[in-house]
Automatic annotation (TrEMBL):
PANTHER family: 1-PHOSPHOFRUCTOKINASE, 1-PHOSPHOFRUCTOKINASE-RELATED. GO terms for molecular function: 1-phosphofructokinase activity; ATP binding; tagatose-6-phosphate kinase activity. This is Tagatose-6-phosphate kinase. It is an enzyme of class 2 (transferase). GO terms for cellular component: cytosol. The gene is pfkB. Pathway: Carbohydrate metabolism; D-tagatose 6-phosphate degradation; D-glyceraldehyde 3-phosphate and glycerone phosphate from D-tagatose 6-phosphate: step 1/2. It comes from the Bacteria.
Amino acid sequence: MIYTVTLNPSIDYVVELHELTAGEIMRTKAEDLIFGGKGINVSSMLAQLGMKSTALGFIAGFTGEALEQGVAAMGIQPDFLRVEQGFTRINVKVHAQEESEINGQGPLIRSSHIEQLVKKLDRLKKDDILVLSGNVPASIPQDIYADIMQHLQGSGIRICVDARQESLMSTLVYHPFLIKPNHKELAEMFEVELSSREDLLVYAKELQAMGARNVLVSMAEQGALLLSETQEVYHTPACKGQVVNSVGAGDSMVAGFLYGYLRENSYAEALRYGTACGGASAFSKGIANKEKVAELLEQLTDCVC
């Protein structure tokens, strides 16, 4: 079973404008509501692929109720914890001359709420997969993912981490099954400039030496790179298409990787599915459907080793 944790999920209000002009009244030409947050995006892509998952995290207020209902309608099993103060955040995503975002804060999460989440995670069994994904809210210690992994150490649960800098680096000592920085995040981690695939591989190996089992690096128009725990290096080119919305593309890549790995028991196929799912969501208004993923899989006949 796959479980995803989204500490601060959101309702994204996505609007398209002819033009964004500060100080003016504008009318949308299209709008949509998307229930998300990085872990929920992973679960959403898995649902599109026909794979079940359970979404955990924190919700609050009437927006939390709406998010829980929306997640269930997407074919995801919700198992959220309700907190008392604040409300589930609403993010405004504006598509005009360029993409702009206004992200909400979310509810107040206390240490007692974290303890309740950890108790839920104690139900997971050996060979289950846990995805810890997204930025950590300011009210929570930034090493919360490491604390969760330390608590679950020795359980046989395969844990994937998709987070930035401190939140990711602190987990490496607990040997996450998969980490997925993008090329910009990788450069920020080591305070270097990365100009080639060879440069990326050098620092992917650094992360592996620090404890990560599999390192998946998304590289935008350059495709994706995977350094597997078996020391094999795989590369896929980027899918061809028109980028519509970059939100959720990286999360879709994680979902596709897990789907491909569990279905084919192959890291090469995991990367191929991950790249196709990431590209498909980038070329869609929200998380892509299975038909779009299948279309892009045809572009990726194999991975280069």
